[in-house]
Amino acid sequence: MLKRRPSGTERKSREWVKVGIPRFLNVWGTAPFWTAFFQSLGVGKVVFSSETSEEQYRTYGKGRVTMDSCYPVKALAGHIGELLHKDINLLVVPMIYSLPSFLKGYVQDTLSCTRVMMAPENIKAGFLREGDEFAKRGIRYVSPFVPFGEPELLPLYLYRALRSAIEDITMEEVKLAVEEGFKALREFDRKARELSLKIIRWCTTNNRPAVLILARPYHMDPGIGHEIDAEFQLLGYPVLWYNYLPLEDWLLNWLFGKDVEEGRIRHPLDISDVWTSSYSSNTNEIIWGAKFGSRLPWITAVIRLSSYECGMDQPTFTPVQRIVESSGTMFFKFGELDETKPSGSVRIRVETIAYYLQQYSQKIIEAKLKRLPPVPHQLVVY
Ligand code: SF4
After folding, report:
1. How far is the CA of 309 from the centre of ligand 1 (A)?
2. What is the gyration radius of the CA atoms in the chain, in angstroms?
């Protein structure tokens, strides 16, 4: 049943507001929230920048970066520069402090990387030093503080940031828009996890291996992750992403039931047995993904992606590799990903890994199956 908007909060038409949002960092993974949020506020349109590319960075971003950083942060300059050439009058660059996470309640916190949070301010500086590039084009730059991990605080921060640009906005409207944003995000998440379950069912039924990607959500961006996942798909290997794995109780109990029974963890989503400083959301999910991948028989290779100069990933490399390899699952890392895609070397490495997948997957599947109770009937498609 459709929920009626409380009286006094009828959707206003704000056709004149044209919102631009850079497709950067943790906007990957939260974009459905932003689209639904601004649609609920009745804006004229919401435009995202293109996916990251070398061309975008060279044309719009280079020379605007004021500090050295990892490429996913520097790439924001290209996104902002590109949006300045679009028909928008409100540029929204969220300062994402914490993230919505399925691990909430089982970890210490769901914070984003400090560079993710500060990127909007750092990169903005490059567009101000020779004059205000936003004002010159009649564009309002707004960078709301976004604590996704504390949804009850979100309306207040978004309202405070937006009221300077949209003067008739009310707190009630923002509260409703936040609800609609989260609803859209939950629905996207549900569909993505459903698709992952479909892939796993296909692998189970056909006894075929799959590859699991452990990365940051923005490595889904072709210009950041260099489409390494797509290379595996081209060779016929289904690909699963750690952040959209299925969370059905029967599946998690099959994979983690013994650990819970024997007291190693208190719940299938608990990672305290392998990771004690569980503050960073993406890191926590990578660690949990490694545990999932080491247990699910049809994941026979785990592929780790990481960007050049990523300080957050450094401490996780060894634990993740150990978790994966201790189960006999193959582990491969593409580290130091930067601005340029080394197409030739990526292809050679993917083909080499595909050779190993072909050679060893059946043995790995059999060995992993032996360590688990019988396969749940829900996984097999008859
Ligand atoms: S997690 Fe790594 S790649 Fe991502 S913003 Fe932080 S330092 Fe950069």
Report:
1. 8
2. 22
Q: What is the pTM of this model?
A: 0.95
| 27-46 confidence digits (pLDDT tens) | 999 999 999 999 999 999 99
Determine contact, residues 253/268, Cβ cutoff 8 Å.
Answer: yes
Question: Is residue 3 over pLDDT 50?
Answer: no
Atom of ligand 1 nearest to the CA of 306: 3
Amino acid letter at 197? L
What is the pLDDT, as a whole number, of residue 9?
A: 58
Q: Are 90 and 18 in contact (CB under 8 A)?
A: yes
Say how many Å lie between the CA of residue 128 and the centre of ligand 1. 24
| CA atoms of 59 and 265, how far apart (whole Å) | 50
Helices (H), the chain: 31-40, 54-56, 71-74, 76-83, 114-125, 133-136, 154-162, 171-206, 222-225, 228-234, 249-261, 281-295, 317-325, 343-370
Boundaries of CATH 3.40.50 in the chain?
193-379
What confidence tens digit (pLDDT) does each residue in 216-260 have?
Answer: 999 999 999 999 999 999 999 999 999 999 999 999 999 999 999
Question: How do strand 299-307 and strand 330-337 relate by DSSP bridges?
Answer: parallel
When pLDDT is averaged across residues 181-199 and rounded to a whole number, the result is 98
What distance in angstroms lies between residue 112's CA and the mean position of ligand 1's atoms? Answer: 9
CB 242 within 8 A of CB 304: no
Q: How far is the CA of 346 from the centre of ligand 1 (A)?
A: 21
- Highest CATH level, class, for 193-379: alpha beta
Whether the pLDDT of residue 11 is over 80: the answer is no
What is the best residue among 67, 73, 121, 122 to mutate for testing ligand 1's pocket, by most ligand atoms within 8 Å of CB?
73
- Cβ–ligand 1 contact at 116 (below 6 Å): yes
Q: How far is CA 197 from CA 200, 240, 292, 299, 327, in A?
A: 5, 9, 13, 13, 21
User: Would you state the structure tokens that stand for residue 325, as one six-digit string?
Assistant: 């390899």
3-state secondary structure labels for all residues of 45-67? EEEECCCCCHHHHHHHHCCCCCC
Q: Work out the mean pLDDT of the chain and round it to a whole number.
A: 95
The predicted-structure confidence for 125-139, as pLDDT tens digits, reads as follows 999 998 999 999 999
Minimum-distance ligand 1 atom for the alpha carbon of 69: 8
**How far does residue 86's CA lie from ligand 1's centre (Å)?**
27
